[in-house]
Write a structure and sequence with these properties.
alpha+beta, YaeB-like fold, 35% helix, 94 residues, 5 strands
Length: 94
């Protein structure tokens, strides 16, 4: 089971969302990424050597998996609409 980091980012994003969506995102992180950091549905992000994303409907979780440390580091959680989550990621990493 991998360690998780960046949960404060997740917590901040989840505030004010519908309980059903909160549960889906929390489940994806706690039960999927924690157990299998690179699940079959994960995608490597183009242009980034070490970032992946998983989808939950119209939401995306962008994360990094540090194999040597067995650590999943959540970088960003956001809504997919019009690629805003990816624009936000680019701004964060510049």
């Amino acid at each position: 089971m991998a360690k998780l980091d960046g949960l404060e980012i997740v917590r901040d994003f989840l505030q004010g969302l519908q309980p059903k969506i909160v549960a889906q995102i929390a489940k994806k992180i706690a039960l999927t990424l924690n157990v299998e950091p690179l699940p079959a549905e994960s995608k490597k992000l183009a242009g980034y050597s070490d970032l992946y994303r998983v989808s939950i409907g119209e939401y995306r979780i962008v994360y990094r998996f540090l194999v040597d440390e067995d650590l999943v580091e959540v970088i960003l959680v956001g809504k997919r609409n019009d690629d805003e989550v990816y624009k936000q990621l680019k701004r964060m990493l510049e």
